[in-house]
Amino acid sequence: MRRKLVVGNWKMNGSLAANSALLADLSAGLMSEKIDCDIAVCVPAPYLAQCQAALSGSALAWGAQDVSIHASGAYTGEIAATMLCDFGCRYVIVGHSERRAYHAETSQLVAQKTVAALQVGLTPIVCVGETLAEREAGRTDVVVGQQLDAVLALLDASDVAKIVVAYEPVWAIGTGKTATPQMAQDVHAALRLRLAAKDAGAAPMISILYGGSMKPDNAAELMAMVDIDGGLIGGAALKAADFLAIAAAA
Question: Which string of DSSP letters, residue by residue, matches the chain?
Fold first, then answer.
């Protein structure tokens, strides 16, 4: 049975002072509340050292929001996977819709980043999702399927079970809109079929997170769906009470 996973994506938010307060509140909440799921935060790279210092030995894991395909070299501004390991990262987000849209990341590049993360033992959270125009055109399954297939094409069967997939309908990120639980479940089920086509044994073990404006008031209903294994949380991850409530719902 898959264990639920709730991951906060801080995006480009935070400060040393604000992070300190948030991490303290999250750590206290995890000790005092009955939360039975895996939980992590993916933070801006400058704050990885702060997370390592504050969270080492706690139940709250941490990770990064991007990684380079290169191991080292003349790639100014890039961050190698081994560097993330130096700061104790467990997870790294790859292919977030904002990276695809604002930095022109292709599915092939996302696949290479996935491989780079796996090679050093990081767990890549592979994001897929469609725009509103693509959904209205009835192309959701085609779009997210092609995005996932590009990643699976570069993976050995032995590595498939080591990834996490996050479905994030682009039209539901930061807009206040959200897919109904059944809409989200339909896409998650289709993604699991894609995973099964690559490795039927691994597919039932892979966590598929929902990343479209999950909040405390809809988290339980979404995560009650058979193929929704947790959430990739944006804005709500910046508020300890909200983030802990989502984790409790898991």
Answer: -PPPEEEEE--S---HHHHHHHHHHHHHHHHHS---SEEEEE--GGGHHHHHHHHTTSSEEEEES---SSSSSS-TT---HHHHHHTT--EEEES-HHHHHHS---HHHHHHHHHHHHHTT-EEEEEE---HHHHHTT-HHHHHHHHHHHHHTTS-HHHHTT-EEEE--GGGSSSS----HHHHHHHHHHHHHHHHHH-TTTGGG--EEE-S---TTTHHHHHTSTT--EEEESGGGGSHHHHHHHHHH-
